[in-house]
Amino acid sequence: MTKLRWCLLTTVALLAALFTVPQTAALADDQPVKDPIPERPITSDLGLVLQEYAQFPQSEPTPAPVDPRLMRWARINFIGEVPDGSGRMYVPDLNGNMYIVRNGRPHVYLDVKAQFDPYFFSGRGLGQGFGIVAFDPDFRTNGKFYTVHTELASSTTKVPDLTPQAGTIYHGVIDEWTADDPKADTFHGTHREILRLGFGGQIHGIQEIGFNPNAKRGDKDYGKLYIAAGDGGQGQAAGNTDPQNLGVPQGKLLRIDPHGNNSANGKYGIPADNPFVGRPGALGEIYALGFRDPHRFSWDTGGSHRLFLGHIGEHAIEGVWDIRAGDNAGWPNREGPFTFVKNDRCDLYPLPADDAKYGYDYPVAAYDHDPPAGWNCTSDIGKAISGGYVYRGHKLPELYGKYIFGDLVDGSVYYTEESQMRRGGPRAPIHQLQTFDTNGNRLTMQQFAGDKRVDLRFGRDSHGELYMLSKANGKIWKVVGTRHFAGGPVGHTHVDGTAGAKNWAPVTPSKWEFKGNQVILAEAGTERPGPRRPFEYAVLTKGPKFGTERIDADVRIDTPTDVTNRDVIIVFGYQSDTQFYYAHLSQDNSIYPHNGIFLVNNADRLRIEDQWDALRSRGAPPSITDMKWHHVTVIRHVDTGEIAVYLDHSKDPRMTAVDKTLASGRVGFGSFDNTGRVRNLKVTGTAVGD
């Protein structure tokens, strides 16, 4: 090695150290956090009604991929509205085409792949290809829009404009296009390259570009292009400090003026109000830093117009950040609000006592991966956040002020209240939304997409209405309504005053007591021949059988809390000793027969509720963990099969299920092998006779 080369390398290393936030290692006596975010998303009775908006043609990656996750019907990646008042929507396909959609009918506006062949590359990496489009806010008059595509570094003689990563294997390229006629539905015009970034891996490249829709002409933010650049999949590597290094663009949210020319390459401008402008050795383009995979960002068009960013984690944390100029999300020293240690591929650690001095910013909402016991921690658990939008439309008032987002892999759809997403405060609770088709059928996004891997994304039009899309089948749906699970009237027949032995038919009368307004299972039941089912229960004989119904009752488990698998049950749809439903309310949620909704239908009880997670071997959160009274509500609609169980007057159901097996029946109370009691039981519903 020459002396000159050694000096240059030493200088580069010193500069990297100077402009890199130091990583904090976990102390030797720190214990890993085994369940970083113990609270699970809350099941909501609120649902989105989805109407198919568009079906896209099948497309193929270039070259043919070896990763089956790239074999999608169409790799549609985004949907937005052209900002010219035409109502046209635009959709990029990673495999190369940009579509314009009118009245739900897509057609090719621009073949990006053809423009850049033979350099265009979409056959490796989940985000490779033609990733995203952003229209200039003045597109109506200037015809300008911007695209991102990827090229293999080995296929081109061009070099990145800003410092590339070591071992760069692909380039993320931003181009500006100028349409001769902005009103045309097929592109004719010119384009120019404005920025090229080099990445050392095939993932976590340029994920999104976009303009602030709240900025008005004359505002400092008007016409400024934001660029979410990932860490190239390198941030977790030993010795890599790129996301914290202010001298490189990787792992950053950048902000540029595409109409300016004061950048190093002279093809764009660096806004003077960017937070690191003028700092020696720092890129003036940087707006925020410390990102692994800043997947999607959006501005709230109401409230205080905040910028929210959905960030995909490494070990466990999927989070939403409220981003402001100069923020540092902490990667790779932090993953969400936890310490990340590079030589530990499995665990996260608590924050150090002196964490405040590092100036990291933490998510305002987050969920974790919740792997099952014994999971190979180096394997993909199949969780990744897909950032969304705060709903500010006018057609769906129940969604107003809710940040709607989801998990792009399994298709779960979530919301948080924008008003509860507060920097520096407790993280906002996350609620899981239901999804329905326009016929009222509840379907999961996996069912809508026809695949277990949904590849879910979100979009928004100029009126603030929401769209959801899936690469799996190349479909886009518009959110056209809201619906409450197991909602609506149940009927007008009432049965109350149910205390007293004359109103009940127990399996074993000697085990029961009737005192005042209480019905008491005083002695634990024992298993009986026949299908596996609750050992002891009593059926309410007062009143008719019910179809659609609402059951309200106060229940208590009398077995001491040191018995972890203690339970009581609410029976409904009872037709015989081997045909009925029951809601199991338990202190435990880790055993298959506990804490769920079950069907006994002349065979072993079958768990039918949605909350049971077979991979992680647990159901809904534990229902009753003490010896106090708890109010229980069970609602069943026989026409839809929807069943919801609520605890202690919560607006969110503890358990939900859909099953139409039993159309009517009676109500009851009991347990498997514990003692307990019920009081104030009443039924409201539709009588179907005896």
Model description:
The chain is mainly beta. The chain is built from four helices and 42 strands. The strands form eight sheets. The chain has an eight-stranded mixed sheet with strand order 21-22-23-24-1-27-26-25, with no helix packed on it. The protein is elongated and about 90 Å long. The chain starts with a helix and ends with a strand.
Largest sheet report: 8 strands, mixed
Radius of gyration: 29 Å
Number of helices: 4
**Distance linking N and C termini:** 95 Å
Low-pLDDT stretches: 1-29
Report the structural category: mainly beta
Beta-strand residue fraction: 35-45%
Q: Which terms summarize this structure?
A:
690 residues, mainly beta, eight-stranded mixed β-sheet, elongated, disordered N terminus
Helix-strand layout with pairing:
Layout: H1 3-18, E1 42-55, E2 80-81, E3 89-92, E4 97-102, E5 105-111, H2 112-116, E6 132-135, H3 139-142, E7 144-152, E8 170-179, E9 189-199, E10 206-211, E11 225-229, E12 252-256, E13 286-289, E14 293-299, E15 307-312, E16 317-323, E17 334-335, E18 338-340, E19 348-349, E20 365-368, E21 385-390, E22 402-407, E23 413-417, E24 431-436, H4 445-449, E25 456-460, E26 466-470, E27 475-484, E28 493-495, E29 504-506, E30 512-515, E31 518-521, E32 536-540, E33 545-557, E34 567-576, E35 579-586, E36 597-601, E37 606-607, E38 630-637, E39 642-647, E40 655-658, E41 666-671, E42 676-689
